[in-house]
Amino acid sequence: MLLGAALAAAWPAHAHGAEIEAALSACVAPVRAGDAATEMLESPGRFDCGGTGLRTAHGDVWVLLTPRAPLAADSLDFEAGWQRDATLTVRRADGSLGTVRLDNATLSRLTTFGRNTRVPLPHGAAPITALLLRLDGAANLGALLRNPELESEAASRTDDVTEVAIYAGFGGICLALLVYNLVVWVTLRERFQLAYCAVLLAMAVVSYADSGGWSLAFPDGDFTTRLRLARVAIGLMAIFAFGFLCDFLEPWATPRWLRIASLSARCLLAAASIAVGLAPFALIEQAHHAYLAAYAAIPVLTIALAASGIRRGSKAARILALACCGPLAVGFASLAHAMGLVDLGELATHQNVFSMALFALTTSTAMAFRIKAITRERDTARAEERVARQLAEIDPLTGLLNRRAMLDRTLAWASEEPLRLLLVDIDHFKQVNDHHGHDHGDAVLRELAELLAARAELRASVARLGGEEFALIGTARELPSGMALAILSDIRTHAFAGGLRLTVSIGMATGPVRDEPQWRDLYRRADTALYAAKSGGRNRAVDHAAHMLPQETAPGRARPGLAGGTG
User: Fold this and answer.
1) Of the candidates 350, 19, 314, which has an alpha carbon nearest to the alpha carbon of residue 166?
2) How far is CA 177 from each of CA 7, 171, 265, rounded to the nearest angstrom?
3) Beta-carbon-side half-sphere exposure of residue 44 (alpha carbons within 13 Å)
4) Is 417 in the active site?
5) Which of 324, 387, 520, 566 lies deepest, with the highest CB count within 10 Å?
6) Considering the domain boundaries, does residue 535 fall inside one?
C-alpha cells in the first residue's frame, strides 16, 4: 500500500517545465552569539569552504549553500542529518529573503521516498543566489547533510520515480529470496537458511527506514527516530549476516577462539545498536562512535573466518570468500565514507541498498552451491545407510532375509489375519558338508533358497534362520496347507549340485502375530511340528494343529539323505 502510494505520488500526471537539477557548494561556519541570517549572507569570509566542514562541524552551525549561477528552482533537496532544530533562509537575485522553519517534525513530513528531504522554496520571481541553513544542536555522524541540490518540480518527479524503482526492485529481490529459502528450509532444515532469512528481514527493515518509508508512514514523528531506526536495523542486519556466515561454514572449519570472538563481536554490536537507538541526543555522537567501532569488527572477523576455513580445507569457506568479496569492498567503502576518510559523492546516496542487494545475491549463489553439497552428502549417506541396512537384513550366502529382519517385518506388518509359519530343515545336511565339503554345502543352501523363493512368489516372506533351517511366513491364503506338500515335491525331484538328491522336513503352525511374545509362541509351535516331522522319519510335513499332513511322503521317489548321519 505504501509503495503504491509512493508510485502514485511519484509518477507525473502531466510532465511540465524543464528538468532542473543543480548541485550546491557547501560552506560551514559556527554560530556566534548575536548572529543573524541577513548578516551571515553578507559575510562569506566567515565560512569554511574547504570541504571538510560538513564532516567535522557540530553544535550550532551555519551552512551556506550556493549555486554556480543564480537559478530558478522549486525545491531544495538534501539528505538531512541529526539536529534539534533547523531554519532555512533563501536569498534571491532581487535581494528578497524567504524563511522556512525546519524542526524535526517538519523534516519528517518533508522526507521523500528515497530518504531525501525536499523543502519547497518560498515563492519569488527572481532566481536564487544563496541558501543559508542554521542547524541548532547538530550531531555530526558522518556529515551535517549530504548531496544538497536545487531542483525543479519535473526533476523531483523523475527522482521520485527512480527511487521507487530502486527500492521496489530491492524489495522484490528480498521477497523472492525469502520465500525461496523458506521453502527450501522446509526440506533441508539447515540453520544457516533461517539465519539468511533473518538477514533478509533485517534488510527489509533497513530499506524501510533508509528509503524514508518510516517518515511516509508516520509523517508527524520525530525525524531523528527514522535515523535511529535505520542504524539499529543496520546493526541487526550485520549481526544476522555475520551469524549466517558462521553457520554457513562447517563446524570443524572455525577454531574455538574465533567462534568466541565472533560471538563477542555480535554481542558488542547489539549493545552498540541499542545504545544508538536509546541514547539521549546529547550523547548520540559518542554512541555512534562506539557503534562504528563495533561494526568495524564484523568485516575483519569475516575475513578471519574465511581465511581460517580455507586453511582448514573448507569448500564452504572458499565459496564464501568469493561471494563476500564484493559486499566487503562496498562495506569498507561505506565505513570509510561514514568516518569521513573518503567521499563517495552520489554513490553514497544508495550505498546501503546496493551493498545489501549485492550481499543478498552473492550469498544466495553461495548457498546454492552449499545446498547442492549438502544434498549430495545426504544422498550419499542415505545410499550408504540403505546398503548397510540391506547388509544387516540379508543373509549374505542365500540373499534371503535373516531371522531379525523377518521378525521386524512381520511385527511391522501387524496383519489382521492369522499368519502361517513354515519351518523347513534339510535332512542329514551334516553329511553333505562331511562328504562333499562346505563349498558344496553352500551351493546346496543357495539352490534351496532359490526353490523356496520361487515357490513363495513374493506372496510370503522367505528367510534363512541359520544353518540349514529356512522359514516362510504369510497369511493362510498366501501359504495354503498344500504349500508344504508342494515344497516337499519340489525338493525331492530337484537335482542339487553334483547331482545330489535331498529331502527336507517341514513344521507348520498358524496364529496371530502382533508382538514378539506371539511370534515366539508361533515359532515354538512350528518348531515342535518340525521336531515331530524329524522324529517321524523326516521327508515329511507336520502341521502343529492337524499333526501329519496327508500324503506327506512319497516313498521311493527320493533318498531321505545320506546314511550314517542326522540332521
Assistant:
1) 350
2) 23, 10, 27
3) 9
4) no
5) 324
6) yes
Q: Which burial class, exposed, middle or buried, applies to 207 when counting CB atoms under 10 A from its CB (0-12, 13-18, 19+)?
A: buried
161 and 135 share a domain? no
Annotated catalytic residue, options 149, 190, 468, 478? 468
Closest CA to 349 of 109, 201, 145: 145
Domain that holds residue 88: 20-151
Average pLDDT score over the chain: 84
Give the lowest-confidence range in 27-31, 33-37, 334-338, 445-449: 334-338
258 inside domain = yes
Classify 244 as helix, strand or coil: helix
| Whether residue 91 is found in the same domain as residue 188 | no
300 with 410, same domain: the answer is no
Same structural domain, 497 and 533: yes
- Quote the pLDDT of residue 344: 66
Cell of 434: 562331511
- List Cα–Cα distances, 259 to 91, 167, 302, 366, in angstroms: 59, 35, 11, 21
Q: What would the 3-class secondary structure string for 311-364 be?
A: HCCCHHHHHHHHHHHHHHHHHHHHHHHHCCCCCCHHHHHHHHHHHHHHHHHHHH
- Does a structural domain hold residue 29? yes
Neighbours of 486 (CB within 10 A): 12
How many domains would you assign to the chain? 3
Q: What is the mean pLDDT of residues 8-33?
A: 67
CATH number at residue 254: 1.20.1070
> Which CATH number goes with the domain that contains 527?
3.30.70.270
- 285 and 434 belong to one structural domain: no
Task: For residue range 215-228, list pLDDT tens digits in order.
Answer: 888 888 889 898 89
φ, ψ for residue 115 (rounded to 5)?
70, -5
Residue 248 lies in a domain: yes
Q: What is the pLDDT of residue 518?
A: 92
Q: What is the DSSP string of 134-172?
A: EEEEEB-SS-SEEEEEEE-HHHHHHHHHHHHHHHHHHHH
Q: What is the pLDDT of residues 390-442, one digit of tens each?
A: 777 888 888 888 888 888 888 888 888 899 999 999 999 988 888 888 888 89
Mean pLDDT of 454-472: 84
Segment 328-366, tens digit of pLDDT: 777 677 767 666 677 666 566 677 788 888 888 888 888
Quick one: 261 and 129 in the same domain? Answer: no
